[in-house]
Amino acid sequence: MRTATVKRTTGETQIELTLNLDGSGKCNVENPIGFFDHMLKSFCKHGLFDLSGTIKGDLEVDQHHTIEDTGIVLGQCFQKALGDCAGIYRSGFFIYPMDETLVQAAVDFGGRPYLVCNANLAGMPLISVSGGKEASFQTDCFEDFWQGFTSNALCNLHIDVIRGRSDHHKIEGAFKAVSRAIRNAVEIDPRRNGAIPSTKGVLV
């Protein structure tokens, strides 16, 4: 079973996540940011990844540390669970439509981290409070999350919002597009027979 648990404790955050690449889409993470919780649940549901754990951070400062560090930990989970990437497809691509929004994502777990993010967000926070729980989302943290992820998953990732009006739809469409692209990339290729997907024979 391709699973990994990663814990990160700093003066700003305390995050522990357990990932199962071959799950059924279950997300059971204690997440203090409502909209971000919704995004992680969407990521798991559409990628068929199981994710559990806890996320705590200095929200009295802002959401940046908490969201970025979650991306770091999630990326480390993927890197650890994939190991040497033997037998996987390695790259994946998906275009996800969400109402008026269309997002494309392409990923390659080739060992060289790089992020290209053209989300075209307005930059205004999404504001909401429900039952006393902060549901707002600092949209400028969206790219920080994926930068943390790519740097630690050792993949390159391209996110392009082709068109859209709602920042909610752009962000959610991106999480879904990326999860489907990653799902395609990390699935086992039955024709590869367990070989490393590189002419070099190693992914670094």
Please, could you describe this protein's structure?
With 204 residues, this protein is an alpha+beta fold. Helices cover 32% and strands 29% of the residues. The strands form 3 sheets. The chain has a 4-stranded mixed beta sheet, with helices on one face. Strands 5-6-10-7 form a 4-stranded mixed beta sheet. A hairpin with a 2-residue loop joins β5 (91-98) and β6. α1 (34-47) packs parallel to α4 (167-186) and α2 (64-82) runs parallel beside α3. The longest helix is centred in the last third of the chain and has 20 residues, at 167-186. The radius of gyration is 16 Å and the shape is globular. The mean pLDDT is 94.
Please name the defining characteristics of this protein:
204 residues; alpha+beta; 4-stranded mixed sheet; 4 helices; 10 strands; globular
Largest sheet: 4 strands, mixed
How many individual β-strands? 10
Number of helices: 4
In one word, what is the shape?
globular
**Pairing-aware structural class of the strands and helices?**
alpha+beta
Cross-sheet strand order for the largest sheet: 1-2-4-3
Termini separation comes to 23 Å
The averaged pLDDT comes out at: 94
Which consecutive residue ranges, at least 5 long each, have pLDDT under 50?
none
The string of secondary-structure elements, in order, is EEEHEHEEEEEHEH
Strand content: 25-35%
What Rg do the Cα atoms give? 16 Å
| Helix content percent band | 25-40%
List the helices and strands and how they pair.
Layout: E1 3-9, E2 13-20, E3 27-30, H1 34-47, E4 50-57, H2 64-82, E5 91-98, E6 101-108, E7 114-118, E8 129-130, E9 133-134, H3 142-153, E10 156-163, H4 167-186
Parallel strand pairs: 3-4, 7-10
Antiparallel strand pairs: 1-2, 2-4, 5-6, 6-10, 8-9
Helix pairs in contact: 1-4, 2-3
